[in-house]
Input
Amino acid sequence: MISDRMELADLVHSVSRGLRRSWMADLAPFGISPHQWRALHAIVSHDGEPPRQRDVAAMLRIAPRSAAEVMTQLEAEGLIVRSPDPMDGRAVLLAATKEGHELEQRIRAVRSQRGDEYFQTLGAEEREVLKRLLGSLLEAHPGFDAGWLHGKGPKPDDGTAPGGRGDR
Output
């Protein structure tokens, strides 16, 4: 059995890589890269007011200049709009357009379906146990969480997570 020959961390990494590869292939028909989808998803999923560009960079754990490049691409495709922050003229606010919201929903549905297909090998109880166990690991190691998936992440200057201040 393959799991008898591999370390747990290697198994988790291999599963993650397999899912990532399949999701990359699923994105191709939409004409959007994984980086662009993550940024669009972070903007759409952000709670409350439109996020600042630097906050999205922190959520994605990328340099602000890299985020600016991705935002330019999304804006050129008509998926987001950038506007000056009325409270801080130096800051840029991001909002998804109607097309951006619709694309994010369609891609999220495809990702959900892909996940369902991938994990169908496991029974319902096994999937729930795996979900609980992985959630426990994320809670125990908050500096490495998947907060970007829900439009949440470290504060831009807190420096506690990979991609935070000093980790470029």
